[in-house]
Amino acid sequence: EAGANAMRSALRAGIRHFDTAKCYGNEELLGSVLKEAIADGIISKRDDVFITTKLWNDDHRPRHVAEACRASLERLQLDYLDLYLVHWPAAWRKGTLGCPDDGVSMEETWRAMETLVDQGLVRAIGVSNFGPERLSRLLSTARIAPVCNQIELHPSLQQQGLVDLCQSKGVAVTAWSPLAKGKSATSQAGDTVSALAKQRGISPSSLVLLWHLSRGVIAIPRSSNPAHIQENCDVWRRATAAGAGGLGPGVGPLALLSSEELALMRGLDRGARLTFDFVGVFEETKWPWPWVGTLLCAVARVIWAVLPNWLDFRMPK
């Protein structure tokens, strides 16, 4: 019920982009809330919202791609997706966790994704967690280019080179964990973020979201607190407002960060991810983690050679 209430709060606040995935285990819930919102008049029709979901790692084989997409559509109670992403650049054997599937390439998976567009099941396709090398390789062979790359981005992990590459190729950048799960204002970056936020009369989290907008990045913050959801939405409204009209009494537009402010924010980059690279998908991962990832894959092969390959993975709530 907490998840449903958060979605309802987001709709009431004016948010119309919802990002989900099979492994999040909340596609059914989102579908029910959207159906309820249309019935209650909060939104008038399906086209009023933008829905993104993702292809999980054990569905990379072409014959599984369409099945996975249709299953997501059924759970969401939708006829089409606005955006369908390859969740990770890692193919696993069907029904396993972490067991590499050596029988499929990303090029084959992407061709199956392109077919979903041809069939009208999805309007756009993209990728998630792709580094520069993988993205460049995909762009060189794709018939339909990915419209976005959803990656971990926050003040402590700015990935400027990857952001620049994406934007130079016309690939939109979407930031997951854009507030570093609330750590942006409490980490070593906190003093700088708080000082800049105080100068502007906004909260530290609003300042970080404004920083993403100033970089041309789409931020998708997650919150279950109605006040925080409204605040996050207001940052976008104020930053994209041409004037103060419609923002409410005493509320004016927010200017994007100045070059001086952006320079201060650049100094906060530590290349620090929120989690270790256990499966070896991040191109910049340093030793010993690639070796650890290789070892874990080898262990997974042994485990899933014994266990039935029946797993239908969902992240723990």
How would you sum up this structure, described in words?
- This protein has eleven helices and seven strands.
- The model has no long low-confidence stretch (mean pLDDT 93).
- The chain has helices at residues 2-13, 27-40, 62-76, 106-118, 132-141, 160-168, 190-200, 204-214, 226-240, 259-266, 289-306; strands at 17-19, 50-55, 83-86, 125-128, 148-152, 172-176, 218-219.
- With 317 residues, the protein is of the alpha/beta class.
- The chain has a seven-stranded parallel beta sheet with strand order 1-2-3-4-5-6-7.
- It is globular, with a radius of gyration of 20 Å.
Provide the fold topology:
Elements (H helix, E strand, L loop, with lengths): L1 H12 L3 E3 L7 H14 L9 E6 L6 H15 L6 E4 L19 H13 L6 E4 L3 H10 L6 E5 L7 H9 L3 E5 L13 H11 L3 H11 L3 E2 L6 H15 L18 H8 L22 H18 L11
Parallel strand pairs: 1-2, 2-3, 3-4, 4-5, 5-6, 6-7
Helix pairs in contact: 1-2, 1-9, 2-3, 3-4, 7-8, 8-9
Give the overall silhouette. globular
Estimated share of beta-strand residues: 5-15%
Secondary structural class: alpha/beta
Give the CA-CA distance, first to last residue. 12 Å
Strand arrangement, largest sheet?
Answer: 1-2-3-4-5-6-7
The number of distinct helices, counting runs of at least 4 residues, comes to: 11
Low-pLDDT runs: none
Task: State the helical fraction.
Answer: 40-55%
Strand tally = 7
- What string, H for helix and E for strand, traces the elements in order? HEHEHEHEHEHEHHEHHH
Mean pLDDT: 93
